[in-house]
Design goal:
heterodimer, A: alpha+beta, Beta-Lactamase, Phosphatase 2c, domain 1, 5-stranded parallel β-sheet, 38% helix, B: Transcription Regulator spoIIAA, 4 helices, 4 strands, MlaB-like_STAS (chain B), STAS_dom (chain B), anti-sigma factor antagonist activity (chain B), STAS domain-containing protein (chain B)
Chain lengths: 512, 115
């Protein structure tokens, strides 16, 4: 912001000798002075440009000085202009009161002492400057609070940087850049010069001290590509701890004391928000790692069977889900299962692990699918009451293709044979209720045919019928690529549009 | 704020009928509203001693597994307090989902409530 010029004062009086006197006293005191002869002249000049003060005769030939003062004070654009009344007549205190009530900031009566005039002008201007600074500070702090809220609400690192840069740019009325390192070690800068643009950024190599620091320099020195001007850049850094990355805020101005203070506060708030975002991303990464460790580590190799599995996590903003699958061989029988624990959290993932281990344990004992499902159901009601899960379990003899299936509230698997896909419907209640179950569904997986199991993340959309979406999947799944990985990939691409709201698990199996 | 695109709000309305208290639900029920749902139904049971609970879903446009869990919790709570639980008005995708997880008949009272 430019340094304030000398205050400009409008002197309004119909008598030329008095205007001359007032003008020369004020000029000598260092002010720039303009003159107006009457009320209308004064109002016209005030409409053309802003003045820092009006020295206003009370008794004007056309309009009362009191009315001119009221007009100034009631005008939204000029209301902040201070007014000093001067009166030629010895006035009663009642008149002075009327003037001050009308909004004037001071009232001087002739004969006017030049020192008193100048002292009064200085005092009033001092007061107004202090008030303006307080207002600017309050505006700045309000904008700072808005920006802090916006960055706290950001769901991703890029959103955070965008909100930070655009907030900084609004706060200082200048181009602004905010840069920091995300959890994956990438440095990104958001530049707000109008719309916000993101680009990779190389931070300066010098060591950033713990705490905050303000420096000035040129765009070149700070490696600011696409920076709008060659003028001075003020750069603030915040670093919360020695082992944490720092955050840079650069603004295209040479900051005064107030702006420096505001910039330091903003940078600290942004540094803390970036740290919180990194911590959240780190939590999410740990949760995903843990969840993955609870899923099968490798697929079994089964003679005569081709297998493919896809597991797509939900978007980083969503909590991790409880989707799971199981593929294992027990006494030559292939156990195929897919399921989904109700809820989204690490807790759901741990319930998923309990169900998966119970499933394997019961499978080793050689039970039929329906019996295994019944045992797990009972186990859940006894040991983890209140938890619910869907599960579809198939035991396949890879030699003969004979299969038995027990479903528990899960979406129907698809059986694709000779280019036709069939939904394997077997309606039975989800796990956790211990309700009566129907007998197992028996079917045959002929050579060359494919089995597809999936979780609702693949098809669920709030604006669509779920059965309609199963139909859609069924049509898309009827053509099977020679490579099952490509098959799963195509279905995911055609049916979901990342970032996914929910986890997606897909298991495809073909009998060769 | 701009990014807070809230889903259609989940709301409820309680009416007392003869012999039953009806809670009419509206909106979308998922993980975010599961606790509200279970709480409303529980409160309706506690506030109206001796009355059965009717849960009207005809203004519900979406329910996921978490929403269903909310209904099942209330179903069990009603049973523990000796009241009948009756689901009505489930339509479209809401009914489809209840049928896929096979709790529709149980919640609408077409099956005995205990096994």
């Amino acid at each position: 912001m430019s340094a304030p010029a000398e205050p400009t004062i409008l002197v309004v009086d119909d008598r030329a000798p008095k205007r001359y006197l007032l003008n020369s006293w004020l000029t000598r005191a260092g002010y720039t002075v303009a003159e107006a002869e009457n009320g209308h002249d004064a109002m016209e000049q005030l409409q053309r440009r802003a003045f820092d003060m009006v020295v206003l005769d009370v008794k004007l030939p056309d309009i009362s000085g009191l009315d001119v003062c009221r007009w100034i004070k009631n005008d939204p654009e000029r209301g902040g202009t201070p007014v000093i009344h001067v009166s030629a007549h010895a006035t009663a205190s009642a008149d002075r009161t009327i003037g001050l009530v009308g909004g004037a900031d001071a009232y001087l009566v002739e004969p006017i002492d030049p020192h008193e005039l100048v002292a009064t002008v200085q005092a009033v201007l001092r007061y107004y400057q202090a008030r303006r600074q307080a207002e600017q500070l309050a505006d700045g702090l309000a904008q700072l609070a808005d920006t802090t809220l916006a960055v706290t609400m950001a769901g991703t690192f890029d959103e955070l940087l965008t909100a930070a840069a655009s907030g900084a740019s609004q706060l200082f009325g200048a181009a602004a850049l905010v840069a920091t390192e995300s959890l994956d070690g990438r440095w990104t800068a958001a530049l707000a010069d109008g719309p916000v643009a993101m680009h990779p950024w190389d931070p300066p190599t010098d060591k950033v001290p713990i705490g905050s620091r303000i420096q000035t320099g040129t765009a070149g020195e700070w490696n600011l590509a696409q920076w709008p001007s060659d003028a001075t850049v003020t750069v603030a850094t915040a670093r919360l701890r020695a082992d944490r990355p720092s955050l840079y805020v650069a603004v295209a101005l040479s900051a005064d004391e107030r702006e420096t203070q505001l910039l330091a506060q903003l940078t600290q708030a942004l540094g803390a928000a970036a740290e919180a975002q990194r911590a959240q991303d780190s939590d999410h990464r740990i949760a995903i790692t843990l969840q993955r460790s609870l899923l099968p580590r490798a697929l079994p190799t089964v003679a005569g069977i081709d297998l493919a599995v896809r597991y797509e996590p939900a978007s980083p903003e969503a909590e991790i889900g409880g989707d799971f699958y199981e593929l294992s061989l027990h006494d030559g029988q292939l156990l195929i299962a897919i399921g989904d624990v109700v809820g989204h959290s690490l807790h759901a993932a741990t319930v998923m692990a309990e169900i998966r281990y119970a499933l394997r344990a019961y499978a080793i004992e050689g039970h039929s699918p329906g019996h295994i499902v019944g045992l797990i159901d009972e186990l859940m009601v006894r040991l983890i009451p209140g938890e619910l899960a869907t599960l579809c379990l198939i035991v396949l003899d890879p030699q003969t293709g004979r299969a038995r299936m027990a479903n528990a509230g899960h979406l129907p698997p698809l059986l694709i044979a000779d280019g036709t896909s069939t939904q394997l419907r077997h309606r039975a209640p989800l796990l956790g209720l211990n309700r009566p179950r129907p007998a197992d569904l028996e079917f045959s997986l002929t050579k060359g045919s494919t089995l597809l199991l999936y979780t609702d993340g693949l098809i669920e959309r709030r604006d669509c019928s779920i059965l309609g979406r199963v139909e859609e999947l069924s049509e898309l799944a009827a053509t099977v690529e020679p490579d099952l990985e490509s098959y799963c990939e195509r279905l995911l691409t055609q049916l979901t549009s990342p970032p996914n709201e929910d986890d997606v698990a897909v298991v495809a199996l073909r009998r060769l | 704020m701009e990014r807070a695109e809230l889903p259609p709000q989940a709301t409820h309305e309680v009416d007392v009928l003869s012999g039953a208290v009806r809670v009419a639900l509206a909106g979308e029920f998922d993980l975010a509203t599961e606790a509200d749902l279970a709480g409303w139904l529980r409160q309706a049971i506690l506030d109206h001693p001796g009355l059965d609970l009717e849960v009207d879903l005809h203004q519900v446009g979406f329910i996921d597994s978490s929403g269903i869990r909310g209904l099942l919790i209330a179903h069990r709570f009603a049973g523990e307090h000796g009241r009948a639980f009756r689901l009505t008005g489930a339509r479209g995708t809401v009914r489809e989902v209840l049928e896929i997880v096979d709790v529709y008949d149980m919640l609408t009272g077409q099956q005995p409530t205990s096994s």
